[in-house]
Design goal:
This is tRNA-specific 2-thiouridylase MnmA. This protein is an alpha/beta fold and 365 residues long. Helices cover 25% and strands 29% of the residues. Helix 1 packs parallel to helix 3, helix 1 packs across helix 7 and helix 4 runs antiparallel to helix 5. The N and C termini lie far apart (48 Å).
Length: 365
């Protein structure tokens, strides 16, 4: 058990029920709790359009402020606009232009919610930062920190946190990971927190309408060029609206009359082509990834049997992972996996614990 006496923790408060209860639990445990909302939105108009449940608009600030008042803890808004623009929005745009499908929440967690917030928190004398994520921080017998899956069935957010460093994990508290969602809402109600029944945020916070392509084109101030839908052999099937409109496995919104369902099976940014294939073309056995971040082990000495998740809502599948040169890995799945998507993360698990993860670069087989 951590010594909570005279320890200060900065809780990243999004205005939602999870981070609010995280602050409640930590205060009950004896920590000196400071609530902080990260100001990351880029324009007043954008946050005024935000619906209830968003995590980075004006209503989030007001909700978090009301919770802090109810808990009788200090509350501040810290400006992270520059970090969010550079590390999340610019990255998001650049990845789509390269024909990949990024996960901006992973980048935000690593570089804004942890790297930037932790640095600022240490500057003001805090010992830890905390969030309302459904995950648990664990220190293993080998001395390394890792993430353990949430105790709640069906509610685990370790996938989006795989990229945290050892230094960040050592300074992180995640009290919500011990409870199911229903229990979190019950605790919020009992404590009289004004966000107890607030709905969860679903969409990417800076694209509340879900129109990623429109957001990218507005950010760039221009419409991206159209190009050709092609078969894997190069046969032209029609015109696409621009590669940022598509992702691997997509079926809807293609505007192709093929007489049967077809899917995006590849994106070729160098030739501005979107490859169209059949359902079976989406299943691959071998995955390649780079930018490996290890948690539970200092180095990967393969081959190693693990469970791997290839997207946030993937249930996970058994595979053999082996290290390649530098920070690259190869995963060979026991059974073919559908729509392995460059730009998404593959996160590796040994039982309940995160071994590490990497960014998918391609697949075969």
């Amino acid at each position: 058990m951590k010594d909570t006496q005279n320890k200060t923790v900065v809780v990243g408060m999004s205005g939602g029920v999870d981070s609010s209860v995280a602050a409640l639990l930590l205060k009950k445990q004896g920590y000196r709790v400071i609530g902080v909302t990260m100001q990351i939105w880029q324009a007043e108009e954008a946050c005024q359009q935000e619906e209830n449940g968003g995590c980075c608009g004006l209503s989030a600030v007001e909700d978090a402020r009301r919770v802090a008042y109810a808990l009788d803890i200090p509350y501040y808004v810290m400006n992270f606009r520059r970090e969010f623009q550079e590390k999340v929005i610019d990255y998001f745009t650049e990845e789509y232009l390269k024909g990949r499908t990024p996960n901006p929440c992973i980048a935000c967690n690593r570089y804004v919610k942890w790297e930037a917030l932790l640095a600022r928190s240490l500057q003001i004398g805090a010992d830890y930062i905390a969030t309302g994520h459904y995950a648990r921080v664990a220190r293993l017998e080998n001395g390394r920190y890792t993430l353990r899956c949430s105790a709640a069935d069906g509610k685990d957010q370790t996938y989006a946190l795989y990229n945290l460093t050892q230094e960040q994990l050592a300074r992180t508290l995640m009290p919500v990971g011990l409870y199911p969602k229903a229990e979190i809402r019950r605790m919020a109600l009992e404590a009289g927190l004004p966000v107890a029944n607030k709905p969860d945020s679903q969409e990417i916070c800076f694209v509340p309408d879900g129109d990623y392509a429109g957001f990218i084109e507005r950010s760039m101030g221009k419409q991206l060029p159209t190009g050709n839908f092609v078969t894997a052999k190069g046969e032209i099937l029609g015109k696409h609206k621009g590669i940022v409109h598509y992702t691997i496995g997509q079926r809807k919104g293609l505007g192709l009359s093929m007489g049967h369902p077809v899917f995006v099976s590849g994106i070729r940014p160098e030739s501005n082509e979107v490859v169209i294939g059949e359902s079976e073309d989406l299943f691959k056995t071998v995955l390649y990834a780079h930018k490996l971040n290890l948690m539970s082990r200092e180095r990967l000495e393969g081959p190693l049997r693990v469970m791997a998740k290839i997207r946030y809502n993937h249930r996970g599948a058994p595979c053999t992972v082996e290290p390649l040169e530098e920070d690259r890995i190869r995963c060979v799945f026991d059974t073919p996996q559908r729509a392995i998507t460059p730009g998404q993360a593959v996160v590796l698990y040994e039982g309940e614990y995160v071994l590490g993860g990497a960014v998918i670069t391609g697949s075969e087989g």
